[in-house]
Amino acid sequence: MAMNMENSSKDLVNEVDHVDMLDASFDAYEGVIINIKNDMDENVFTALLQTSISQWRQQGKKGVWLKLSLEHVNLVKPAVKEGFWYHHAEPTYAMLVYWIPETNHTLPPNASHRVGVASFVVNNNGEVLVVQEKSGAFKGTGVWKLPTGTVEEGEDISAAAIREVKEEAGIDTEFMEVLAFRQSHKSFFSKSDLMFVCMLKPTSLDIEKQDSEIEAAQWMPVEEYANQAFVKKHKSFDYIAKICIAKKDNKYVGFSPLLTTTASSAKKSYLYSNYQLEQ
């Protein structure tokens, strides 16, 4: 009888000590990252989530990150019911967040900017590469503009400028400098926009335009590009054109890429500067 009571006591202790929780890892900011690997019933998920948050609250945790792949989209609704909200989404997942303390949250916001490039490609004859677009705001306007595009995830500004010129006009180039950049707001689904104007040196001259997006492409004297009525009418375009002319005439110094690393990573990155390294 005594043995049975002892075993029962041990079972009770083990039951109290063992609490089913969601699989998760912790970050350096007292945050929690939930790892959903297998399909899960919504009711089971809700029970585990409630228990987990209770435990994390006792542990002093703060932000909770819940990454749900397309296969686990059924868990979005129960998570929202428990107080989670959307942080961001990508093609293969949605990220939801929750703040445990009874204070204003300090979670970092979603990306605030989209990054674009405009490429000033000038040949030895003082001609700039210009294009007319088949769609968008410039469709059917007859305006000649610099090749432009969006920087892809994980892509350097310099690489994006080279890629966009190759895609739109078939011209191979060498990146030289960032000449200027412009910031605007509420330009793309409420996001801000950073546009970097880059100077590139052509290493080929025969144009092969992109038929799907580009109506026409050609080499044009820089002054002719700058004197277009549209460019003259809009200050930002006019300023950029004047900067390009000044650079062509060697009266302007832009920012060249310096290969370096950041303090938090050994990965190579670029610092754009007009600092002249000693040879």
From TrEMBL:
InterPro entries: Nudix_hydrolase, NUDIX_hydrolase-like_dom_sf, Nudix_hydrolase6-like, NUDIX_hydrolase_CS, NUDIX_hydrolase_dom, Pre-Nudix. Residues 112-244 form the Nudix hydrolase domain. It comes from the Eukaryota. Keywords: Hydrolase, Metal-binding. The keyword Hydrolase applies. GO terms for molecular function: hydrolase activity; metal ion binding. Its EC number is 3.6.1.-. Belongs to the Nudix hydrolase family. This is Hydrolase. It comes from Helianthus annuus (Common sunflower).
